[in-house]
Each structure stands twice: as structure tokens, then as C-alpha cells.
Protein: histidine kinase
Organism: Roseibium aestuarii
Amino acid sequence: MNRFTRRRRTRRIRLIVIGLFLALSAGSVWLTAETSSRFLRSDLETRVSAGLQVQAGILESHLEKFRVLAPVVARSTNAEAVALFIDEQVGKRVAAIAAGMAGAEEVWFLSSRGRPIASSLSDDLAVMADGNRMIDKAFAEAAQGQLGRQLLPGSPSRPPSYVFASPIRVENRLVGVLAVRVPLAPVEQAWALTKVPLAATDADGRILVSNRPDWRGRLISEVTSGNPLHIVRQLPVLGWEVHALADQSESLSQVWRAMLIAVLLCVILGGLLFMLAARWEAQAQRGRRQRAEALRLERKVLHRTAALRQANAQLQQEVQDRQRAEEHLRQAQAELVQAAKLATLGEMSASLSHEYNQPLAAIRSDADVAEMLIVRGRAGEAVGNLQRIGAMVDRMAEIARTLKGFTRKAGTDVRPVDFAQVAEEAALLLRPQVKRTETELVIRMPQEPIVVYGGKIRLEQVLVNLLSNAVDAARAARDASGQPPRVVLTVTADGPHALVTVDDTGAGVPENIRPQIFEPFFTTKETGAGLGLGLSIAYKIVHDFNGSLVLEDGPLGGARFSMRLPRSGGPWAAGKTEADQAPAA
Ligand code: ADP
């Protein structure tokens, strides 16, 4: 998945999650509002209806108290007398006592025709007659022998009252009516103590009693419109209804509060979710970045490994090439060594032919003498000649053998070699040259055998070269100074090494050419006399044997070539390098 697709997908998921969260939040807020309003409404309903019951009870019990007052007073003999004799004086007293004791607003007597007799309140009969007209319904009921009831409606400024009327009978004959006016103001005062608006209505729905004085006389439907919580209780005896109109504003504000809390909780939850999501997102991003980094590293490693492998292959190839080149070089060197040897031989050939010619001539003359002696019958005298011939042949054979060995191609192996033998054979090979140049060759060997580690023919080659150069230099010096040429070969044991020095009475090596004498093809000799290979090959051979070859100033006035070779058989045994051996000794 590429980055853009992933980003688009992430954005889509984020939108879906936000949408879901908003929907859920809205749902929870709605649920909170619904549940809380239902709960608060039912709670309010319970409270209000309980209050309504109490308040309705107050109204009922208030009226109930006065309901029995009228019949009780009407049946008394005093009342009968007042009605029978129209006795205003007694009537007024009885009415005042009854009203005062019961707490009625007014108690008054009426004749059977409905005319006023006496009242607890007023003496003015005209006013009373007005009042009587207002209670015609209650009077009519009482005249029929029932308990008359009638409401005297109030107005916003005047509280209503209720009238009970009871017949006064003498021997089953209606003689008058006793009316009791009950004030409803105490009920309204008791109702005024509750906050809930209360109203008692008649069958038509007109408000008779209320703790809101301005409602008196109005229709209940007018005041309840718009108020949703309206509880009604029937008062069957009175034929009334008591209404309670609950004030829902507090419940509503509580619902709003609950909703606000729900919204706040949603906001907090949303914030938390947002933070969590942001952290998840950051973590995922970090993980992705780490994975990408690991992948990049892996690729880098792979790349580097490939490069390394390639370099390795290249190196191997180079090593092979080098080995091959070394092999070629070794071959070339071997051939060069051989060439140098042959060159030395070439240089020595004149002396060698002299070496052979001299004994051949001696053999020839000895053979002639022996022949002559034998012919003359003096064979016994020929023995001496023959013995000399034999000795000379032996010598020539030895020279031939040494030469043959020297010309043989040198091997590459290294083994212990007795240096005395090397010196002896080199001297033998050089003898013709030494003799010809009348050089004195001195060889100083120690008593103990000096066994070095090397190849015999190659060591001989080195020594022949050094000695031959020394003889050449000594003879050349003799030509210049007249000093008899002398070459000294000294072999000594020097710790783990054998020290071989070749000194001559030559003129030495001039300072300016010293750095060059070990270079191949460097020679100061005239053309044909030297190839300039001798020292360079000698140097190479000695180093191959882990030895060293240096030029020094010799004690005889000429050059000194010092050669160190590792000795064999000691604690510095075979195969070790010069550097390894030196400190061990
Ligand atoms: P070549 O003998 O064919 O010249 P070398 O490599 O053997 O080649 O010698 C190189 C040169 O070193 C010689 O030409 C000579 O000048 C100088 N040299 C070698 N040995 C001696 C010596 N003992 N005394 C003086 N010079 C020497």
C-alpha cells in the first residue's frame, strides 16, 4: 500500500470514528434527557399528587366540620322556639353563640317562607333579606327537608364562602330554616402555604377556591392551558374537583443540568479518545518508520555484502594473478641464476681449459716416457710415471665432477649444508683463476663444523661469485700498485648465524657506486668481462635463505663482503627467519 492510499484510508476511518462518536454522544445526551425528565416528572407527579391529597383533605375536612353544625343547631329547642315565635332576640343570641363556638362566618335563622328572623352578624333585616336571596338554592333544599348546600362565589378581592341550610321542624312541620355560612378563606390561606397552584372547581370547571386569588371565577381551562403537568382529584360529596398545576421549570432546569453533565462527559470522553487515537497513530507511525528504517538498513547491508563479495572475488583474482606472476618471476629468476652461472663459467672457461691442458700435456709426456721405458725393458721405472698419470686423471675427474654439479640446475629446496664443503668446492672451481692471477687465497675455517641452512649449489654459486670478484679486484689493484693480490675467506660461527667474510687487497668499491652494485646488470668491468649479474643474484639467493649480504670496508684495504646465514641444528632450527632467531640466541 502506498503512502497516499494509506493516508486516505486513515482519514476515512477517522471520519467514520468521529461520526460514530458524535452519534453515540447525541444518543447518550438524548437518553439522559429522556430518562431524567421521565424520572423527575414521575417524582414531581408523586409529590404533587401527595400534596394535592393533603390540600383536598383540608378543604373537605373544613367543610365537613360545618356540615353537622346546621342540623345540630336546627334540632335544638331554642331554634324551634325562634322559628315558631319569630323571636328575634333569642334568635340573634343563639346564632351568635353557634357562630362564635364553631367559627362560622355567619349563622342566621329564616322563616319557613324564607324571610330573615335573626343573624349572628347584622341587625339590619333588609341587608339580610338580600343575603337570603343569594342562598335560594340551599333554602329550597332545606325546605324539602334535606341539608341545603350552596356556594357563595367570591371575586378576586373577596374570598368565597359556603352555605349549609337545615330545616327547623316542629311536629314534622317546617317552621323555619337555619343557615350557616362557612368562610373558605382559611382553606385558601392554608393552600397559600404551598408553592403549587391549587384550584377547586365546580362541575362547570369554574374556579371557586384557589391559592391564587386572581383565579377566582375563571375557568380552569383558561389557567391550565400550556401547563403540561395538571393533576386532578375528585371531591364527590361536593361535586367538585381540586386541581394542582405543578411547576415544571425546576424539573426542566434539572433536566438541562443532567444534559449538560452528559455533554461534558461526552466532551471529556471524546478528548480522551482523541488523545488515545493520537497516541496510537503516533505509535503506528513510529512503528512504520522503524520498519522502513530496518528495511533500508537491510537493503544497505545486502548491497554492502554484495560489494564486499565482489571485492573479495576481485581480491582472490588478484591473489591468483600475483601467485601466477610470482611463479613466472621465480622461473625467470631461476633461469637468470642459471644464466649467471653459465656466465661465470664462461668467464672461467679460459682458466679451466688451461687447467685441463696442463695435466693433459703432463699426462702426454709421462705416457711417452713410460712407453719408452717399457720398450727399453725398464718397465719397473715406468711405474712412477703411470702413478702420476693416474693422480692427474683423478684430479681432472674431480674438476669435471664439480663443474658438472655446478652447472646442474639448482633445486629450490633448502637443507642443512656443511659450509666447509661449499668453500672447498668453490676454491677448486676457482683454482685456475687464482693460479693464473697468482693470487694468494686463504681459507680460514673453525675447528667445529659449520652447518648452514640453504642449497649447496646456490651457496657455491654465491661464494664463487664473491671470491671471483675479490680475485679480480685484487689482481686489478696489483696491476696499479704492485701489491701482491690476496683474498681471505673467513668462516665463523656467530650465534645462530654463520658469518662468512670475503676480504681482498683490491681498491674497494668507490662510494658513488656502492648503492648500485647489487643491482642487476650493474658492472664496471669491460664488455665481455662481466654481465653485472653476479652480486644481484648472490644477494637474492642469500635472502632466500633468510640470510644477509652487505658490503663493508675490508681490513685488507679492499672491499669486504659479509654474508650471514642461519645455522642449522642449533636451537635456532630450520625454517626460522633471521628476525625470529636473533633474540633467541
Ligand atoms: P661483474 O662481476 O660481472 O661486474 P658483479 O655483480 O659480480 O658483476 O659485480 C658488480 C660490480 O661490483 C663489479 O663490476 C665491480 O665494480 C664491483 N665489485 C664487485 N666485487 C668487488 C670487489 N671485491 N672489490 C671492488 N669492486 C667490486
In short: The chain has a mean pLDDT of 87.
